[in-house]
Amino acid sequence: MKVLVCDDEALARDRLVRMLRDAANCEVVGEAENGLDALSKVATLTPDLVLLDIRMPVMDGIACAEELARLPNPPAVIFITAFDEHALAAFQVEAIGYLLKPVRRDQLNEALSRATRVNRAQLQHIREQANDDGKPGATRNHITARTHRGLELVPLDEIYYFLADQKYVTVRHTKGQVLIDETLKELETEFGDRFIRVHRNALMSATYLEGLELLPSGQYQVRLKGIPDKLLVSRRHLADIRDKMHNL
């Protein structure tokens, strides 16, 4: 992964460069002194990731990130700053990380790991672009969620289920859960071959379907492999789930 370091303080850049040289799969391709300098170097060096200070002369980091976001294939951005009041602005320009100085090595490595996942997803997106007739290509292999840690990608094969609750959908996956603002209908249309509608508010992965249980109330609930969570099954979807189980 090619990295550009942007900070108006030379000592701060030097420290980051040293830490990056010890990180796996990272190549520091350049340094910049402010946002305008960073934009120029992104155009020539095409980094995968920009480590971007926020408070800088000429052009600050937020303005730089806004310009980068307009590029056809923008690099990922991680903000590094001594001030924590910029977190909301960083979130709004879709930074994947926000680290406070002095940066700890473990925090930087975690942010770099997220950047690697984002870049892999971008590459997959390019591969799945429209066909020659202009129709959409393959479906996504990840779900994207914005959290307090930045942009997170959840692989589809790690998702147990989607559960709708008012305006958001909870994505339950092998490492926890995140919220997204997509609808169940949109998710069912895109991933209907991999996820089963079990209720008007729930889709579950066919991969993790383990069995059905009859409740004293006469309703059924579905068991999932690997987790104790159980989902209620509506009567209208019961036959589809039984058919799916017979084909497993």
TrEMBL record:
InterPro entries listed in its UniProt record: CheY-like_superfamily, LytR-like, LytTR_DNA-bd_dom, Sig_transdc_resp-reg_receiver
GO molecular function: DNA binding; phosphorelay response regulator activity
Source organism: Fluviicoccus keumensis
Record's keyword terms, sorted: Phosphoprotein, Two-component regulatory system
Modified-residue entries (4-aspartylphosphate), positions: D53
Domain Response regulatory: 2-116
Domain of life: Bacteria
Identification of the protein by name: LytTR family two component transcriptional regulator
One Pfam family in the UniProt entry: LytTR
Keyword Kinase: no
Domain HTH LytTR-type: 143-247
